[in-house]
Structure formats: C-alpha cells, structure tokens
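Human: If only I could read backbone structure tokens as easily as an amino acid sequence. Underneath my words sits a plain record pairing an amino acid chain with its backbone structure tokens. Take your time, and here it is.
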Amino acid sequence: MEMIRVRDVRKEFGELGVLKGISFSLHEGEVLSIIGPSGSGKSTLLRCLTQLEQIDGGSIEVCDDVMVTTDDQGNVRYSDNKTLQVIRLKLGLVFQSFNLFPHMSVLRNIVEAQTHVLKRSKEEAIEVARKLLGKMGLSEKENAYPCQLSGGQQQRVSIARALALNPTVLCFDEPTSALDPELTQEILKVIKELAREKMTMIVVTHEMNFARDISDRVIFMDDGLIVEEGPPQELFVNPKNQRTKKFLQRYEQ
C-alpha cells in the first residue's frame, strides 16, 4: 500500500527553485532514506510533506487522502482544513533541534500534545508517555527538564513525543546532526529498533553507513532534484549517476 504519493512537487523561495519536480512513493512498512549535499532540498521536502511549507506546484497524497493538487492552469489547491488536519496527524516529524518545551518536564512534554491534539484524558496520556519513555530507556527521567538531559536523551524524548501521537509515517530531519558521535549511536539504535517493528519512516540523514544499513530504499537528491534512487546495496555499492558517485566518494575517504 502506498502511504505517500508525491508527484512533480515544486517549491521556490523567491527566484530560487529549491524543489524542481520531485516525484516518489513511500510504501507501508518501508524505510526511505534521503541523502544529498546541504542545500539539495531534503529538509524542504520534509517540511512540505508535513505542511510546514506550502508547495508551488505538483500534488501530494497521504494514505489516499489528497493534501494538495495543481490544476491545468497551474493553480495549487490544498484540501479543506479538516482533511489537512487528518493528514497532519498521520505524519510525525522529529526535528534535528529537539524542539522540546524547556519549561515542561519530560513527562509533560509528551503528555501535552496527546491531551490537546488527540483529546486523550490526562491519565491515558501519562500511561502512553511512560510506556514510550520505558521504550526509550528514559523511565527515570520523567520528572527531569530538557536542560538536565544530554542531547541524545533530548532527541529520544522528541521521538517518544512524536510516537505518542500514533503517526502512520514518522519523518526524521537529520536526527543526529546536533549530536556528537557517541550520542549519535543512541539515536541510530532507536531508529533501527523502529525499523525492526516495521514503522514506516522517511529519514533525511548525513549518516551514510546508517542509511545503508537501515533503508529499504535510498534517494539521492542534488540541486532540488532526485538524481538517483534504489536499494541501498545498489546505490551505495554501484551508483549509476556520476554525481552520486562523486558525493559518496567523500564518505569513503
């Protein structure tokens, strides 16, 4: 089953074309990694999928719900607010900068979204939060505040908060870019466990070894375009495009 269908998506910032006709699909239970140099449009693509940015052309469907289309005259039309909210709840996003509320405890950071967005009772939200904190190895940190946690612990709380909303697809935007190598391994371990549980995921990452190990499929983007895509054992071992080869050579040195 196709969970996400993206067709000819374009995004511009002024005169700068950041996405220049992106098309791909994501299937249920699939882990898709998106790699490429800085400025290639990877994070912008995730922001468009999660409605943090509006596209300038193309179409996006999530679980057969239409988010946005473009008519023959080039007019971009988003669905009604009710449909967009349904779609928004299906896509979780974990940011590279954690985005935790500094004045709230770890437990409350995970509880608040559940009670406000999903309208869960406080008791149910706390139960879900504690279960997820246990899964992240952070049960003893529920009363701590973000400033009292390491970067790796903060990112694990961010992942727990996203999972608490029961997303159909979980998106990661460079989840380890703000972490040192030791803490990076903590987060990669969590994502690998989610992959084993067949969580459908899109991972924008600069960790090439991780992308190779975790992914069912890898997309290489450059200059707002998908240059090459395929299974990791093909794209990393025998890339067909010269631009892909040149990019990957930097990580072999």
Observations:
- The mean pLDDT is 94.
- The chain has nine helices and eleven strands.
- The first strand starts at residue 2 and ends at 13.
